[in-house]
Amino acid sequence: MCRLQVISLSIFFCMIFKVDSVAQIPPPEKGKATIVFYRKKKMSGAAIKFNIQDAERVYGELKNGDVLHISVDPGEHTFYSKVFREDAITLNVEEGNIYYVKTTIRVGYYAGRPKFDQVNEKTAQKEMK
Fold first, then answer.
1. Using H for helix, E for strand and C for coil, what is the string for the chain?
2. Residue 62 dihedral angles phi and psi, to the nearest 5°
3. pLDDT tens digits for range 67-116
4. Which residues pair with 118 in a beta bridge?
5. In a domain, 84, yes or no
6. Domain count, the chain
7. Taking Cα atoms as reference points, which of 68, 23, 30 lies closest to residue 50?
8. For the domain that residue 77 is a member of, what is the CATH number?
9. How far is it, in rounded angstroms, from Cα 31 to Cα 8?
10. Looking at residue 14, what is its pLDDT?
11. Contact predicate 30/92, CB 8 Å
């Protein structure tokens, strides 16, 4: 009986103190744009991680459920990731705007491959919860 009460109380407190897990995206810096790369938490491909990079540098690593936001100058930017096969996305960004890129894993025969898709803010905020 005591065990059931502990479990019930645990569930109750988890429901009350649930923290909104939507990433807090800061506004773009003056003269810059922000690009948000996110990966929705899923079982399929969960162990696979990959870097977000361009021709000049690696910005960070995305694991299952991660969000990475970067600040860039306005203009055209191509970002890519390569595990066994490369995928890339080119964005023409404007100063003061925030752009969202959903990253997913396409599960292949030998390994998963990253895939990039630009999405709107509403979709991104919903999926980052």
1. CHHHHHHHHHHHHHHHCCCCCCCCCCCCCCCCEEEEEEECCCCCCCCCCEEEECCCCEEEEECCCCEEEEEECCEEEEEEEECCCEEEEEEEECCCCEEEEEEEEEECCCCEEEEEEEECHHHHHHHCC
2. -110, 125
3. 999 999 999 999 998 765 678 999 999 999 999 999 988 776 666 678 89
4. 101
5. yes
6. 1
7. 68
8. 2.60.40
9. 51
10. 35
11. no
- Tokens representing residue 112 in the block: 């998963």
**Does residue 14 fall inside a structural domain?**
no
Residue 99 lies in a domain: yes
Within 10 angstroms of residue 35's Cβ, the number of other Cβ atoms is: 24
pLDDT score for 84:
57
State which residues form the domain around 25. 21-127
For the stretch 2-39, pLDDT in tens is 554 444 444 433 333 333 335 588 899 999 999 999 98
| Cβ atoms of 98 and 121 closer than 8 Å | yes
Q: Classify residue 54: in a domain, yes or no.
A: yes
